[in-house]
Amino acid sequence: MKEELFDEIMEAVIDGEKSKVVSLVNKAVAEGIGAGEILNKALIAGMNEVGVLFKEGEMFVPEVLVTSNALQAGIDIIKPQLVADDVKSIGRIVTVTVEGDLHDIGIKLCGLMLEGAGFEVINIGVDRPAREIVDKIKEFEPAIIGMSAMLTTTMANMKEVIDILKEEGLYDKVKVMIGGAPTSPSFAEKIDANYSADASECVSVAKKLVGAV
After folding, report:
1. Distant-in-sequence, close-in-space partners of 93: CB < 8 Å, separation ≥ 6
2. Which of 28, 62, 187, 189 is the most buried (most CB within 10 A)?
């Protein structure tokens, strides 16, 4: 019975049926199923499948945004219990679009996929200078900093962040992940970062970086 309910929640997340997710999650809570189980075996499991469908081209950005809203509605119901049970996230990630760049659809989509995979995501916005990004890394102490650039003219600002991290002895304390249309594996290697091609790949890269594969 419990597994059937988990499957129903998964399908509702995949289909982006927010009201159905809310109803089913409430039902699971009423039946005494633990918040951690609901999160991992139903909600995150559903979002993982969304990631596969997105990567295979069977689901597109607007649909992923709808599924993420359904996912969030389910998480909101169990969040108080998750906090009370002290359920740990896989790791904290700070995401940002670097200075000179205002594009944020890609980085937001990455954030949604990462949250769906069990990460705590803190997005600090767009057009952020290197010094501010490093200050936020100091403040939030993330396991990963994820940087996005959609313009060739702003790519260099990623390297500036990494240079400051090295200068201040922080580079070994945080993993650096980059992405965006003009970036590439060779560019990432050149600036000592880890490359993610798209929103679905960012989850697998992030998991490897925190040893959660």
Report:
1. 111, 114, 119, 120, 121, 122, 142, 143, 144, 145, 146, 206
2. 28
